[in-house]
Amino acid sequence: MTTPLNPLSSHQYWESLRSQGFCLPQCQACKEFHFYLRPACPACGSLDIKPVVTSGRGSVYSFSIVYRAPSAAFEKDVPYVVAIVATDEGPHLMTRLIKVKPEEVSVGMRVLVNGWRTRDEPTERASEGVAPPLFEPEPS
Ligand SMILES: [Zn+2]
């Protein structure tokens, strides 16, 4: 039997998303956040990586408006916005933006994760995070 280099497996990460809230992998040695999951910290090489609940906040780094559905399952959604969100903790995530008209999206726009418990969101207000992490405009 082989032992994985990093004890934080993809399954464990997704389980922590479900049970704890919107987490990102954080190196416990240097405290850097990173995403996607890697076998070692990209900043210092440590194998001590744990999922840590984050603010769930960030800003739009880049985006694209999808007008043509890639399959029948998305036909009801077009046009929709696929975005790269730069989280306040550092890592960039590819996601979809919801609760916003595509023409209202701009680079630098503040966003927050929708429907997930976060460090700033009381448990009783957010869902259990059963849906993929999607982002919406931050209330101003
Ligand atoms: Zn590190």
In short:
This protein is 8% helix and 31% strand.
What does this structure look like?
There is one protein chain. With 140 residues, the protein is mostly beta strands. It folds into 2 domains: 10-53; 57-137, Beta Barrel (OB fold (Dihydrolipoamide Acetyltransferase, E2P)). The mean pLDDT is 89. It has 1 helix and 7 strands. A hairpin with a 4-residue loop joins strand 4 (80-87) and strand 5 (92-97). The longest helix is centred in the first third of the chain and has 11 residues, at 10-20. Strands 5-4-3-6-7 form a 5-stranded antiparallel sheet, with no helix packed on it. A two-stranded antiparallel ribbon has the order 1-2. The chain binds zinc ion (ZN). Zinc ion (ZN) binds next to loops.
Round the mean pLDDT to the nearest integer and report it. 89
- Assembly classification: single chain
**Spatial gap, N to C terminus:** 53 Å
Count of structural domains: 2
Can you count the helices? Answer: 1
Q: In the CATH hierarchy, what is the class of the largest domain? A: Mainly Beta
Computed over alpha carbons, the radius of gyration is 16 Å
How much of the sequence is in beta strands? 25-35%
**Which ligands occur here?**
zinc ion
Name given to the CATH architecture of the largest domain: Beta Barrel
Element-level helix/strand string: HEEEEEEE
- Looking at CATH, which topology of the largest domain would you report? OB fold (Dihydrolipoamide Acetyltransferase, E2P)
For the largest beta-sheet, the strand count, sense and barrel status come to: 5 strands, antiparallel
Strand order of the largest sheet: 5-4-3-6-7
Helix content: under 10%
Catalogue the unreliable spans.
none
Q: From the helix content, strand content and strand pairing, which structural class follows?
A: mainly beta
